[in-house]
Amino acid sequence: MRADHPLLRCGSRALSLQPFRALKGVVGGYIGYPIAERREQRSVTPKVHELEQYYTLPFAERRTIALRRLSEILQFAGTHVPYYRDRFLEKNFDPLSVLKDPAHLEKLPYLTKDIIREQGDRLFSRPLADLRHHACKTGGSTGLSCTIFYDQEAADYSSAVTRYARRRAGKHAWRSELHFACRFPDAAVPQWPSREDFKCFVNNRSNIFFDRIDDVGLEEIWRTLKLRKPYLVHAHPSTIYALACYIERQYGPSKTFEVFESSGELLEPHMREVIARALGCRVIDRYGLAELGVMAYEVDGHEAGFQIFESEGWAENRVVEDHSDGARELVFTGFRNRLMPLIRYATGDLATVDARDDGFFLTNVVGRIHDVVPINGVAHPTHHIQDMLDHRVGGIQEFQIDLRTAPPTLRIVSEPWANPDDTLGKLRAFWGDAFKVEFVGHDALVRVGRRAKFRHVVTA
User: Fold this and answer.
1) Which of 87, 167, 294, 308 is the most exposed place for a label (fewest CB within 10 A)?
2) Which domains does the chain have, with CATH numbers?
């Protein structure tokens, strides 16, 4: 049957009530999830247990393990990855040296998105055709986009880290989670049940599909939240901040979920304060990136700090030379992905790595910001526009919206194989004449800020 069948809507309402909501979570989490792991040939649950045991160890012992893993991934990359093999020989670098002093890592150059795009398959330890793999495109908010390839083991560890972190936040199998996702205007109503339905069932998850954050769109979101009553909500902070401001203005402080998990862009202090006050929830920040997965999380709450998962990678800082205030860029070496190891990867985000007695923590975090763009008089978040361009238009390497012109200018860097007329036709079908469209090269994209960073939206 169609996913919008009245029987399914009635069933969804019934499952939002206790005790059916908890029963659904128990069945999905403790029966459905193991079945899904076997069917998909994945191994996530054992890795969650491994992480739980690891983080009960004293930090001194965990740091020793992290250094050993750092040395192991360096040895592997220097042996099996052409790009690193050349760099290690060029720098006369010994991977075992980091066991005595991790400062020896500084002999190696930083890895950037430009290098990843330039080197291509020289960053692979094996040809992609030889093993099961997963492609993940970076968002482009801290530099031009590139594609990262994970092997299955790394993908499973990435999923395990997310599940472990949410357990630390109190989100167990019987408690539901809700994710915000892009609503595509041309999407056909799917048949039920689908693969996505089963995935949501075993993760006790549901989705809110939205495409606007004006009062009409925010009211729709709020009604959905009140119906489903999730324990944890995962979304961009700019979206939930807009919701919090609307709810506070329209209804006064109201509560319908326990935890807001922020990711994808910078959670600023004033956003945290308004969200917590207006929506009556705990606000938990996490730091994740397409290149490595979730690498830091407020596992014990905001006051305890933004803890780095040193089980998954080694964090460093590099001083940003063109910043007079001594800002530091966040650099990671990932431990898990042996298909495409990332050694000293410069994330483009600014943060300080702080070593304490109980772990490594992030402080002074400054990073990705997603703007709001008016399209035909309706406010749209840029991550929605990006999803539309990636999944409905296609053939686009990068985009930028210049709000300094009337109408706004949408600059597009096309894939070499893309047909500009087809791209323009799809854009007009979705958004009419809301944008003046320009097909350009990467060099025509406007750079903003003190570091001439790339931004999807240019306002000044």
Assistant:
1) 167
2) 42-175+231-369 (3.40.50.12780), 372-458 (3.30.300)
